[in-house]
Amino acid sequence: MKTPRLRGRYFRILTFFAGMIARFIYWELILRKIGFRQLAKSTRSERFRREAVRFRALALRMGGVMIKVGQFLSSRLDILPPEITDTLADLQDEVPAEKFADIRQLAEHELGASLAEKFEWFDENPLAAASLGQVHRARLKSSEDADFVNVVVKVQRPSIASIVTVDLSALQRVGRWLMYYRPVREHADVPALLREFSASVHEEIDYTHEAGNAETFFENFNNDKLVNVPRVVRSLSTLRVLTLEDVFAIKITEYDAITAAGIDRGEVARKLLDVYLEQIFEDGFFHADPHPGNLFITPLPAAKNSKRKTVRWQLTFVDFGMVGRVPDNLRKGLRETVVAIGTRDAVRLIKSYKELGFLLPGADTQALEQASAAVFDRFWGMSMSELKNVRPNDVRDIGHRVRDVMVETPFQVPNDLLMLVRTVAILSGMYRS
Hints:
The protein is of the alpha+beta class. Helix content is about 60%, strand content about 10%.
């Protein structure tokens, strides 16, 4: 049963999106019909940007699922214009912490004992706070069956399950509204998008799922001495509490600190690339949230009797709430895509899109073939030095053409592949730095 606060939250979400839809109808339908088509067209870019700014402000005020919605929308380059995705791209999941008394109560209820009974020490000040939960440092008692004592304890926000239910319920209603509009119905499978998003959020609030992800990742890299993955303390982990080995070290973007530790940043970049290639192409299971707070460089003590001058280190991963999978059908489709690009075969490229599940019924495959052929004709066969000298306007024009076709065509990328694209984009920036 919804409390007054949750009912207010539900209607606040509905009111916001109802206003957004009403403004869209006024500008894109009413004004265009009464002769103001050019005005609607000339103001569209700025209007979309303003709507994204409004949503961003709402997400930051409300927290909960709404921040996740913003991050999800920022990745939907296949169905949303750049004015929206660019504005939401740097939306960070950082919100004020819960009162420690509430966190203590939930943690003790989940663990079936007081924190003093379970931990030798528990820091009341959170190490990090996000929309779904927050992290505290702690130290295990010697009675725990583990060969480490320093841990981090991730505790879910006390009311987050109810908030998730309410937010998703409101979004499903908004989704039904959108499907009444034929252009939306023909260009995007909104119910499918919401199902993917809902499944992702429910996985993130199930800490037993995250614990399993961490253990899978640990097993995959157990024999790689350059990769460090925190071990799970299962006896102190539940659906809403997760206890992991504390492996926090130098953030991967703290470049001066990495250099000061005597670590070669070029080696770090190469190892980062190798590890992700292994995750994607060998394991079919990858860490899908590689932002700087989730990747660390851990200096190691020099080996005994070692004469090497280079510093030993490990690439350390944390936070396994968001992972991606590369199933066999996706790998097959990606292989077809690579072959099509390698042979400049636009028809085969569109066929690979179908295998990947990109194209919805009614897609204009001819327009996609023409856009792909234009890319091949303009850039095929160029060396890296030649590509560097291509005029920015040429790249921009081709990019806009391809993107316009994608937005106008029923072209919807599966969530697993979107997570992969998003991950690669984040890693690309890190790698260059």
